[in-house]
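pasting for ref
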Amino acid sequence: MNNIKLNMAQIFASVNTSGNDSEMKAMDANRYATKKTIAQGMLDIALLTANASQLKYILQVGEQHQFYKLMLILISLSIVLQLLVGIFFVIIGSLNINKKEEQTAAIILNDIILVVVFLISIINVIISGFGIEYSSQPLRLIAKDKEP
């Protein structure tokens, strides 16, 4: 019986070391971080697009919007912070975290990105709270080309 257990252990050991290393690669932390940064960048682009659309709406409506100045400031601030985060993503994406000297910079930059993304989230919650499409006053767009 012990002989069978020993043979089974030898079979499993030979299967695990028989060149299947290509299937079971060790996780490359640098590659993972790069893919994560790209995914975060794509989400940032989606939010940037939404903010650009909101900015267009606010500029079209103008002073008729109940919270025009507040919305203009918040949306502009959100866009500027998103551009800053995008620059940080490019920088952090170029770092090789497998090198000791670049790990500290990557950690600090990652913490900065986290704080700025948190601020962007809070700003966008406030933007949606004050409502882009809806306010307590009805909006009327006046066509400049048409005479009544």
